[in-house]
């Protein structure tokens, strides 16, 4: 009986006999192979990866028995059944991100000839100096602080003053709630460029998201992979002072005024991580879909929220809007004052939005409107689980800051136990709420101890 071609992805300890031991297990269970391909592990020199194609006549039962034994073999660190599809490498734990964070495509210290700062040697020198911080950084370390020049702070100040005038009217309510907290805790002001370290620590305390410095643009896959671990790659350099309201690439203004605030909102943080998790091991076709969804939401998303009178209003939450004076007004007012151009507004549906390309040098002709971050998060979760072609399921482990590939019964049983524990906690909390109905409690601090006081 013929079966669909399948492959095994093996991660083996880099020592003598590891491959032979694995092949012996496959031979024992009569799993015939048609091809063996070795791949050096991108994230470590202590392991080696192999992709082995299985003969189409080998039964699923034979493969399952072999997999079960391989997972108990000391030299086998991980094994996946790929269903005949070769999947791209992807990070399994937080520290793996360091591997690709220095592999930028462009920008950083290198500038194109049409860049506003191309002929400014002083500016280019600053870009080179700041880019070196990102190149030597390792995840988990304190992010080195940049001593910004008066000229750089002046550029920030011009943008900051103009944008903060618009936020109360044009930005979503979550942004307007969080922004004063960044002023209070992270040094946001017109005369100070916040440091990534201060903002990152604040975000970690609130939602577990963190910032990681990067010297330039990453590939789409690498950038999205970082989001899976609640890591946002952020530049530290600032745009050229000659055109403060324009930048051809992301800079610290875009990162800290556009992106960072909403990573402090739990629903938005969850949504961003959902896109990241969907990108792990995804095909190039699916990465393109996810990039479009990221663009139409995290970068240029708008939503509908009621104003104080209960009237629905369109508000901006996308970083590309919140860091752009002109497009922020255009996206919400619905017209370009200079050209008369009007955008189209469509209800956000990931299955539809992922099919449409977008311009990167002009205002967006289409904005996708979300009803809420929570609903958007659920839409993304459903889309990732039903519309993407990935032959395995993943689970993020917040305790180890790693992802688990759910490819065995043991892992599913462990997950079931975790879910049951959470359900038990939920039931217990609900019982306590019912028992204490009519009572209110507040925390008081006494000698660094938290105590309940019944009111």
UniProtKB/TrEMBL annotation:
<dbReference type="InterPro" id="IPR036329">
    <property type="entry name" value="Aro-AA_hydroxylase_C_sf"/>
</dbReference>
<dbReference type="InterPro" id="IPR036951">
    <property type="entry name" value="ArAA_hydroxylase_sf"/>
</dbReference>
<dbReference type="Pfam" id="PF00351">
    <property type="entry name" value="Biopterin_H"/>
</dbReference>
<dbReference type="InterPro" id="IPR045865">
    <property type="entry name" value="ACT-like_dom_sf"/>
</dbReference>
<feature type="domain" description="Biopterin-dependent aromatic amino acid hydroxylase family profile">
    <location>
        <begin position="73"/>
        <end position="434"/>
    </location>
</feature>
<feature type="domain" description="ACT">
    <location>
        <begin position="7"/>
        <end position="84"/>
    </location>
</feature>
<dbReference type="InterPro" id="IPR019773">
    <property type="entry name" value="Tyrosine_3-monooxygenase-like"/>
</dbReference>
<keyword id="KW-0408">Iron</keyword>
<feature type="binding site">
    <location>
        <position position="259"/>
    </location>
    <ligand>
        <name>Fe cation</name>
    </ligand>
</feature>
<dbReference type="InterPro" id="IPR001273">
    <property type="entry name" value="ArAA_hydroxylase"/>
</dbReference>
<feature type="binding site">
    <location>
        <position position="254"/>
    </location>
    <ligand>
        <name>Fe cation</name>
    </ligand>
</feature>
<dbReference type="GO" id="GO:0005506">
    <property type="term" value="F:iron ion binding"/>
</dbReference>
<keyword id="KW-0479">Metal-binding</keyword>
<dbReference type="InterPro" id="IPR002912">
    <property type="entry name" value="ACT_dom"/>
</dbReference>
<dbReference type="GO" id="GO:0004505">
    <property type="term" value="F:phenylalanine 4-monooxygenase activity"/>
</dbReference>
<keyword id="KW-0503">Monooxygenase</keyword>
<dbReference type="InterPro" id="IPR019774">
    <property type="entry name" value="Aromatic-AA_hydroxylase_C"/>
</dbReference>
<feature type="binding site">
    <location>
        <position position="299"/>
    </location>
    <ligand>
        <name>Fe cation</name>
    </ligand>
</feature>
<protein>
    <recommendedName>
        <fullName>phenylalanine 4-monooxygenase</fullName>
        <ecNumber>1.14.16.1</ecNumber>
    </recommendedName>
</protein>
<comment type="similarity">
    <text>Belongs to the biopterin-dependent aromatic amino acid hydroxylase family.</text>
</comment>
<keyword id="KW-0560">Oxidoreductase</keyword>
